[in-house]
Amino acid sequence: MSVMTLGCLGEVIGYAGRVILNDNPWDSIGFQIQICCLIIAPSFFAAAVYLTLKHIVLTFGPEHSRLVPNWYTRIFIGCDVFSLILQGAGGGLAASAEEQSLKDHGSNLMLAGIVWQVFTLIVFAALAGDFVLRVSRARSNLPLAASELLRSTKFQMFSAGLVTAYLTITIRCIYRIAELAGGWKNEIMQNEVEFIVLEGVVLVIAVLCQTAFHPGYCFPPMQMKNGVAPKGITGLKDTSDPEMRLQSV
Fold this sequence. Notes:
Number of helices: 10
Radius of gyration: 20 Å
Distance between the termini: 22 Å
Strand content: under 5%
Largest sheet: none
Shape: elongated
């Protein structure tokens, strides 16, 4: 929830900067706000997607995963933070630089950060897809609670929302690569309609999917702490079992 809040806050502040620019296209404060916030904010939405895979693996069986569950969080959140640093540094440099050469360096840093983010998203999808394939092959051997969860409408909505959020975030990142790769005066960067659709609308869809199909409602295992489910939730795998705990660290 906290990463989604930070992402939404960044988007709101970023578009406030664009409103400032609407009144005065040469306003340096508005330019700095929108460049830094809008380039960084989607990384938090991506982090929210990454955080779910560990819990999905723990629920349906770490034995089907190529990685120990906690490593999904460590690897992908670590990659996301690195991307965030590159994009933040690049955005700050591009927004504050007066010389065109420094602006270009900032743009290149932002581009590197987004390229790294897309690479991370692709690797994430490959590992998640591999896990889903392995679980589907072992579907008949899944624990009863996991099988029931897999068939539940709530979890299916959660899964559909998660995939949609992943795809829209990826589309946005690919668009940003094309936008930044052409430099500050290229046609893509100057097309406002494309920006609103491929930067704004797709992220609205991602946030709506991640909010409407919130794991707290649709995927109860994410509420488990120290292997114990919250009050009123039963039938989940007990991760307090020493063997399971060993797999999750």
